[in-house]
Specification:
- This protein is 54% helix and 6% strand.
- It is mainly alpha-helical.
């Protein structure tokens, strides 16, 4: 049976907050009047109003024992009834009549046969694209609510979802096996067996990620891709199967070992393996392309470092040349003190040159310096490319590449390089021209520096082979990154534009999407909306410039005077000391167990099949998995410190029952419960979020780990989204070399909690012009802390408007003007991308990775950049004109930085190093740490509220502003180390009190 907690089936929460009582269970005057007209006794009135409010909330009539006492008491108080009055409908016939009246008022029909029919149709349709029973039940619930039908019992829907899913999946499994044929089935079955000479089966190797981009790993990855491709044409086998189903089936296979797969029916077993093979084929291509890009980037980085070393060595040569030149000039100067005749002066100048080593040596020095003058590292790239040459040519022979636009000049140049690869010459012909009148148009994609390197004026029509090959691979990697070249059969490096909805499909969602994000539905309206905001922001800065004591413009460059921090009030410091001293001692494992009892977050976990877990002590096992993963210790190490649990049991739960999606759901459960606590009102209202990254060291034999210039060390970036209430809404683990802004919007869209922030703060790494555009398209107000704002370009909304005080910010008149016609012309492209992302057809992170400043051929990049220029300029103008906004941005980014320190304090195991080479497992550890941190934050908030109640009882006067100066990141009362006693897992805690009536939160000014 599916756990009801994993579905949206309406039920009462263990915690019913004051906010929930007020919003959902407070009857209005009309409802009470309606009930009085039909009821004669107080008991019946109580019963009818209570049933009405429950029905409005749940679309069904809950049984009496389901309704929490707090709800019953609240409705009793609203009706001004005495404590001895209990809800009583009367006879069974009267109860049925009351329910009929309530249904009529709500416009809901009680028709069980029709409800079952509609639910079955919805489940069968959804089962083609969704796999988990909880998702199928949720789809059925949506359809029943749309049809205004009373909901059937949960067991009815669960039995229906289980049965229909089995039928649909059996049909899919049979189809996959039929298309695979007997030979394909035999190859799939062989994957599950272990050859005598091997330690692991091929089935196990399919799950392993690629290793770091070294010369030997290239060969191994290419061989692995060939081996996986030889299994069979999975594109044909899986034809007609929804990608979401393939991903779910592959995930289920990935979570099991070969022995566990043997327990499945043959068709199901082989179909799951086929899906795993399919994802492995795509991933092998992605990994190979990623290895190429990383290797090229590493070679380019080495060339730039070599250039700096050469420049350092040449400083001495430069000084020597300058000294020689000075001596020559002094002796050639006819007005000098020892001028003499012209011949004499020339002889003395020649002597200076000879003393410096002679003319040949001086000319050689000049040639060396001029060769590396400027930022022309390109001339050095071939030195580092040489050792990878054979492997890279072999690699591109394994990948099937295609241009995503009509410009395929880089691929044509690649083919030309491959054609001459076996002919080792100093010079080879130019690639065929793209334009007949321009013989060099075949390398038209190259920069001026590269052209000067590969071409030699003494050999027209030729290019130097070693430099040409290095150039081609540099541009191949660049266009793979920007999406101008795609890898056929891959996932991350596929043609992302092919995943966009058609405009006809987008039109069906246009009105609803624009209404949700608050944007006009037409190109003209969209442009007018942006232009008015831009003009208003410019005018606001202009009108307030004379009174803006912090801002001054120095030769067109904006400068802000630093403000001193006011510091914490003494009363707040005294309160902090009192609370910290009174916080009860806690253990991390105890906090995890208590919150599991209270919130039920552990119900989000379970087997990949979607069925309920069949392990004993579910709460205890899941609590231990979250605790050990959150503090970053592995199953083996954990088993040494925790009695009654084995490493195998912990590993099984972490690998088979917990994945990234389930962790996101568990995090959302905690966030929702935290948001219902009264004490949280002192810290924020959840309308803003700050995103920031912190480096976490990892093992290095994988494609994610990189050396970070910004942070130092080798690893990745734990990227956290922290609400203004201090709780983490979402987290990601990303490579160090990726601009953090790429992932900014993705996390906001994947946040499944009820806390939906509209304002987003980040640091300088969390912004770029395309990201500002994407934020605007999804209704987010992106306001980052941009440290280098003085170096950015301020764009004009119109060149016809002059601002007497601030006009020099925008540069010369007629320049830096937003191209509104470009935006209006490509408005459809913007909306098509946004709706495709909202419908799950495209990842925003994938899009942002492709929309880079060197996306030369991408028209979508150009319009994203243009919109982003306007939106970022508005953000900069607001930042300069509003000191309170700057204070809020600073406070928000300080919170996320504090969270980074708090989560790192919890992640103390293995010295903070993630001991896994699988990027998926690395991100799982980061999310486990996020979940653990949120559990501690939730428990700390409860303890703070309890301490505050005690202080108020002792006579303290505590205000909401004083509480606002605190944070729930307290840690001195928490025990992290030692032997962990598991007896706390079996102790059910008393219910907690979410209310803090002792504090008046109505006076809080969260906008200040």
């Amino acid at each position: 049976m599916t756990s009801i907690e994993r579905t949206a089936y309406p039920q009462f929460k263990r915690l019913t907050s004051a906010r929930m009582l007020h919003v959902s269970f407070t009857p209005n005057a009309d409802e009470i009047s309606w009930a009085r007209e039909r009821i004669s006794t107080p008991e019946a009135l109580f019963a009818v109003v209570l049933a009405l409010k429950c029905y409005q909330k749940m679309a069904r009539f809950p049984r009496a024992h389901e309704i929490p006492d707090v709800v019953v008491d609240h409705v009793r108080r609203c009706l001004d009834l005495g404590p001895d009055v209990e809800p009583d409908h009367g006879a069974g016939r009267t109860t049925r009549w009351h329910r009929k009246q309530i249904r009529a008022r709500q416009g809901v029909t009680n028709d069980p046969p029709r409800a079952r029919t509609i639910a079955a149709e919805a489940i069968r349709e959804a089962a083609r694209v969704k796999n988990h029973p909880s998702d199928l039940i949720n789809v059925a619930l949506d359809r029943l609510v749309e049809a205004s039908l009373e909901l059937p019992g949960f067991t009815t829907l669960d039995e229906m979802a289980t049965r229909i899913r089995a039928e649909v999946n059996s049909e899919i499994f049979a189809g996959i096996c039929e298309r695979a044929g007997e030979e394909g089935q035999a190859r799939l079955q062989a994957l599950l067996s272990v050859a005598e000479q091997d330690t692991f089966s091929m089935f196990n190797r399919l799950k392993k990620p690629a290793q770091r981009a070294s010369w030997s790993r290239f060969k191994a990855q290419a061989a692995y891709m060939a081996e996986v491709d030889a299994i069979g044409d999975t594109d044909t086998w899986l034809e007609g199967v929804a990608p979401t189903k393939v991903a779910d089936f592959a995930g289920e296979a990935d979570s099991l070992d070969a022995a566990a797969m043997g327990d499945y029916a043959p068709f199901k077993r082989l179909a799951l393996v086929a899906c795993l093979v399919h994802t492995a084929r795509m991933r092998s291509r992605d990994d190979l392309a990623e290895m190429l890009c990383k290797r090229v980037a590493a070679n380019t980085k080495k060339a730039k470092a070599e250039l700096e070393e050469i420049r350092e060595r040449q400083r001495v040569v430069n000084e020597r040349l300058i000294g020689t030149y000075r001596g020559v000039l002094e002796h050639l100067d006819p007005d000098g003190p020892d001028a003499g005749g012209e011949t004499e002066r020339a002889q003395r100048a020649a002597q200076i040159v000879e003393a410096a080593g002679g003319f040949a040596a001086q000319l050689a020095d000049i040639e060396e310096v001029s060769a590396f003058h400027g930022d022309n590292y390109e001339v050095l790239v071939h030195r580092f490319f040489k050792k990878d040459r054979a492997v890279m040519f072999d690699l591109v022979g394994h990948l099937e590449l295609k241009a995503t636009s009509s410009d395929d000049s880089v691929l044509a140049a690649l083919e030309h390089a491959r054609e001459y690869a076996g002919k080792r010459r100093d010079f080879i012909p130019l690639p065929p021209p793209v334009e007949e009148e321009d013989p060099e148009s075949g390398i038209g994609f190259a920069s001026g520096n590269w052209r000067r390197v590969v071409c030699d004026r003494r050999r027209p029509g030729m290019v130097e082979q070693r430099h040409f090959e290095a150039m081609v691979f540099c541009y191949l990697a660049e266009e793979l990154r920007t999406g101008d070249i795609a890898v056929i059969g891959s996932n991350e490096y596929a043609d992302w534009s092919a995943h966009l909805l058609t405009w006809e499909e987008c039109e069906q969602h246009l009105a609803a999407f624009c209404a949700e994000v608050g944007l006009p539905e037409t190109a003209e309206g969209f442009v007018a909306h942006l232009k008015h905001r831009h003009l208003d922001a410019s005018m606001e800065l202009e009108s307030g410039y004379e009174d803006n004591a912090d801002l001054f413009i120095d030769d067109g460059v904006p400068r802000l005077k630093k403000r001193r921090s006011p510091g914490s009030p003494k009363a707040a410091e005294k309160l902090f000391e009192a609370i910290e001293a009174r916080m009860p001692e806690r253990s991390l494992l105890g906090i995890v167990a208590r919150t599991a009892y209270w919130l039920g977050w552990h119900h989000c976990f379970g087997p990949a099949s979607g069925s309920d877990p069949k392990i004993r002590d579910v709460l205890g096992r899941y609590s231990l998995a979250v605790f050990t993963g959150g503090i970053n210790i592995g199953p083996t190490e954990a088993a040494r410190h925790i009695a009654g649990i084995t490493a195998r049991e912990l590993s099984m739960v972490r690998n088979r029952h917990i994945d990234l999606t389930k962790l996101n759901a568990a995090i959302a459960v905690v966030v929702n419960a935290f948001n219902d606590l009264d004490v949280v009102k002192a810290w924020g209202d959840g309308t803003s979020v700050a995103a920031d990254g912190t480096q976490v060291e990892t093992y290095i034999d994988n494609l994610l780990a990189e050396t970070s210039i910004r942070y130092g060390g080798v690893g990745g970036i734990a990227y956290h989204y922290v609400s203004d209430t201090y709780v983490a809404l979402f987290s990601r683990f990303i490579p160090c070399g990726v601009w953090e802004a790429v992932h900014l919007i993705e996390g906001l869209l994947e946040n499944t909690s009820d806390v939906k922030p509209s304002t987003v703060h980040a640091d300088t790494q969390g912004q770029s012009a395309p990201v500002f555009t994407l934020a605007t398209l999804f209704g987010f107000d992106l306001m980052p802390r941009i440290r280098n704002f003085a170096d950015l370009t301020f764009f004009r909304a119109s060149d016809k408007v002059l601002y007497p005080s601030t006009d020099e910010l925008y540069g010369e008149r007629g320049r830096n003007v937003i191209d509104w016609r470009l935006i209006e012309r490509h408005w459809r492209d913007l909306i098509q991308v946004a709706i495709s992302i909202s419908q799950g057809r495209l990842s925003s992170a994938t899009l942002m990775r492709r929309l880079r400043s060197n996306s030369r051929k991408n028209r979508i990049y150009k319009v994203f950049r243009e919109v982003g220029r306007s939106v970022r300029t508005v953000a900069l103008l607001r930042f300069l004109s509003d000191p309170q906004l700057r204070a809020r941005i600073t406070a928000a980014t300080n919170k996320v930085e504090s969270y980074n320190g708090f989560s790192a304090w919890l992640r103390f195991g293995n010295n903070g190093v993630l001991a896994d080479n699988d990027p998926v497992e690395q991100e799982k550890l980061i999310k486990l740490n996020t979940l653990l941190a949120n559990l501690v934050i939730f428990h700390n908030a409860l303890d703070i509220a309890e301490v505050v109640r005690g202080l108020v009882a002792e006579g303290w006067t505590i205000t909401a502003e004083e509480l606002a100066a605190l944070s729930p990141y307290l840690r001195t009362h928490i025990s992290r180390f030692g032997a962990y006693a598991t007896d706390v897992l079996g102790i059910e805690p008393e219910a907690f009190n979410p209310a803090l009536d002792e504090i008046d939160f109505t006076i809080m000014n969260l906008a200040a």
